[in-house]
């Protein structure tokens, strides 16, 4: 798709990764609406930029936000979802934390995407940040891994459903990147993890994938290389 002029909602735009993607899209001429948990969008939020706040545990709000943003933009061409929380160790292996991880990491992105699909029919893209854990489930991060794998599986199925309708579904599965996410787990203590890539490595590939209507962006731990497909 052509990013220039694309009416774009970036969800998670107050986070490190979401804000970096939004900045890059803005530099390519996208017409942005921004959504975040804190509402602090910094320099991204110009006087004519629609902004919204949400709690990812409130799925109804997630869905309604998409319609509000599309109305403010005069339509919707691109949805980018960059939301998530981490959980580690035995502390994350209980029903309460499991529900929280799946609601934020799996169900909230699904709610945003489902609400966007009718507005994107004919041409449009949904780009969602999942994680390498969808491909490489990791001990000590069992529930977190499962929540990301569930999201990735859903995106794969929806891609097949939407192909004939002209909607591209782009599943982005980066390795561990130092965004501060691991320092704010909902449970447990972060494992010792070395960042395999940087935000600056990832963002240009996300934009390339959107522009070229790619299906997925993955990372090979053995070769330390990204792959767009």
From TrEMBL:
InterPro entries assigned: NAD(P)-bd_dom_sf (IPR036291), Sc_DH/Rdtase_CS (IPR020904), SDR_fam (IPR002347)
Family from the record: Belongs to the short-chain dehydrogenases/reductases (SDR) family.
Protein species of origin: Pseudonocardia sediminis
Cited PROSITE patterns: ADH_SHORT (PS00061)
Entry-linked PANTHER family: DEHYDROGENASE/REDUCTASE SDR FAMILY MEMBER 7B, DEHYDROGENASE_REDUCTASE SDR FAMILY MEMBER 7B
Pfam families found in the cross-reference section: adh_short
Lineage, broadest ranks: Bacteria, Bacillati, Actinomycetota, Actinomycetes, Pseudonocardiales
Keyword terms: Oxidoreductase
Highest taxon of source: Bacteria
Keyword Oxidoreductase in annotation: yes
Gene Ontology annotations for the cellular component aspect, listed alphabetically: membrane
Protein's UniProt keywords contain Oxidoreductase: yes
Protein name per Swiss-Prot or TrEMBL: Short-subunit dehydrogenase
GO MF entries: oxidoreductase activity
């Amino acid at each position: 798709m052509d990013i220039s002029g694309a009416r774009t909602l970036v969800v998670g735009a107050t986070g490190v990764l979401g804000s970096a993607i939004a900045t890059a899209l803005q530099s390519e001429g996208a017409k942005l609406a921004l959504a975040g948990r804190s509402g602090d969008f910094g320099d991204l939020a110009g006087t004519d930029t629609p902004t919204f706040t949400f709690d990812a545990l409130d799925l109804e709000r997630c869905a309604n936000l998409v319609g509000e943003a599309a109305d403010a933009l005069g339509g919707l061409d691109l949805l980018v979802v960059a939301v998530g929380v981490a959980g580690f160790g035995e502390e994350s292996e209980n029903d309460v934390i499991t529900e929280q991880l799946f609601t934020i990491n799996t169900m909230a992105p699904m709610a945003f995407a489902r609400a966007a699909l009718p507005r994107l029919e004919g041409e449009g893209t949904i780009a969602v940040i999942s994680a390498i854990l969808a491909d490489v489930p990791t001990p000590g991060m069992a529930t977190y891994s499962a929540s990301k794998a569930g999201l990735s599986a859903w995106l794969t199925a929806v891609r097949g459903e939407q192909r004939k309708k002209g909607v591209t579904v782009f599943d982005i599965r980066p390795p561990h990147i130092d965004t501060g996410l691991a320092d704010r787990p909902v449970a447990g203590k972060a494992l010792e993890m070395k960042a395999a890539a940087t935000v600056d490595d990832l963002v240009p590939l996300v934009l390339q994938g959107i522009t070229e209507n790619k299906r997925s962006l993955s990372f090979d731990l053995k070769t330390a290389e990204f792959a767009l497909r």
